[in-house]
Design brief:
This protein has helices at residues 16-31, 66-74, 76-86; strands spanning 2-10, 40-46, 57-63, 90-99. With 104 residues, the protein is of the alpha+beta class. Strands 2-3-1-4 form a four-stranded antiparallel β-sheet. The radius of gyration is 14 Å and the shape is globular.
Length: 104
């Protein structure tokens, strides 16, 4: 399995209330992809970070393998969410993709 984790920081010019609405929209959009993309096993968006955080929200997703992650990246439904709900509002994106070791 492969994990795909992203941390986003929203644009500074957004008000607190705008940030809350944007975070809800990103969560709804990305979690709405569950069951629609081949090889996507799990997808969660955390929008309730503690005050000690230096990012605004986190995507935590799991894929069958690296090929499934590559397919997700270009899948039309994912691209629509990314282009409509994520990219217009985010200033910083940090990503870590890694293989989950097999448990023997």
């Amino acid at each position: 399995m492969v994990k795909h984790v992203i941390l986003w920081t929203l644009k500074e010019e957004l008000s607190t209330s705008e940030k809350e609405e944007v975070k809800k929209g990103i969560k709804e959009g990305l979690e709405g992809l569950a069951g629609k993309i081949p090889g996507l096993l799990d997808i969660k968006v955390n929008i309730d970070g503690l005050s000690s955080s230096n990012a605004d929200l986190m995507l935590d997703s799991t894929f069958e393998n690296e090929e499934a992650l590559k397919g997700y990246a270009v899948h039309p439904e994912h691209v629509a969410v990314a282009d409509g709900k994520v990219r217009p509002y985010t200033a910083i994106r940090s990503c870590l993709d890694y293989e989950v070791p097999d448990e023997a």
